[in-house]
Write a structure and sequence with these properties.
single chain, 241 residues, alpha/beta, Helicase, Ruva Protein, domain 3, Rossmann fold, 4-stranded parallel sheet, 7 helices, 4 strands, 44% helix, globular
Length: 241
């Protein structure tokens, strides 16, 4: 990883964001080392560095909160690196792999991924992505998921990338099927659940219930070993990716 040259304001003072960026770059350097150790030799160090840098720049362009930017970039980069390793056959991935895609990756798709992880007890790999990612998760989506004990506060919107799409087995879209690339060998489905933008909290709760119902059907479909026999208690679950 290489540090970007410092930038200055028109007054000649250092950009106040520069120290934050420099700290982030040190964090990203350590993350890149860890990711290379974990995924070598499937993915070389130059590719790891590139994907970490791309993740940081991509998320930084639209993230509303910068304090967790380096951590989020590391998670996003790892999802892409792991996808590359799966696509290259370097990692065996026996669990069903589901990708949820919507416009902003700030509500419906994040809910679906988190609910899938919860109801399958992690025995289904669930990821999410957006065609035009928002700057943060919708506030009412956070509230609605908090109400059932599945916090989304560490989730973050991220773009749909070719490597992550290629690694998925089932691709579930939310009213955007015509804008998602169609790759051979994928099971594409569309869940017609309306966009959450501008909707009152009660509508968001109804969307959450619809998504959960669809997720439970999906878990049952993918096999008896992937989840509980019923909804079960709303306990802790892995954060949506």
């Amino acid at each position: 990883m290489h540090e970007a040259p410092g930038t200055r304001t028109t007054s000649g003072l250092e950009d106040p964001n520069q120290d934050h960026r420099e700290r982030d770059l040190h964090v990203l350097e350590r993350l890149a080392e860890h990711l290379h150790e974990r995924y070598a030799p499937a993915v070389d160090r130059a590719t790891v560095d590139r994907l970490v840098a791309e993740a940081y720049e991509e998320l930084g362009q639209r993230a509303s909160v910068k304090s967790l930017l380096a951590t989020s970039a590391g998670r996003f980069a790892e999802s892409r690196i792991r996808a590359l390793a799966i696509n290259r056959g370097a990692i065996e991935s026996p669990l069903p792999r589901v990708l949820f895609v919507d416009d902003a990756n700030a509500g419906r798709s994040q809910m679906a991924a988190s609910l899938t992880l919860k109801h399958s007890d992690g025995r289904i790999t669930a990821r999410s992505a957006g065609l035009e990612p928002a700057g943060s998760i919708y506030e009412d989506a956070l509230t609605a998921m908090d109400e059932i004990g599945i916090p989304l506060h560490h989730a973050f919107p991220k773009p749909l990338t070719e490597d992550v799409l290629q690694a998925a087995q089932i691709v579930i879209t939310f009213d955007c099927a015509d804008r998602v690339p169609r790759l051979d060998g994928k099971d594409y489905r569309d869940w017609g659940i309306p966009n959450l933008v501008g909707r009152p909290l009660e509508d968001v709760r109804q969307a959450r219930a619809q998504i959960e119902s669809r997720v439970l059907e999906l878990v049952r479909e993918l096999g008896p070993d992937t989840g509980r026999s019923g909804p079960g208690p709303a306990s802790s679950a892995p954060a949506a990716a």
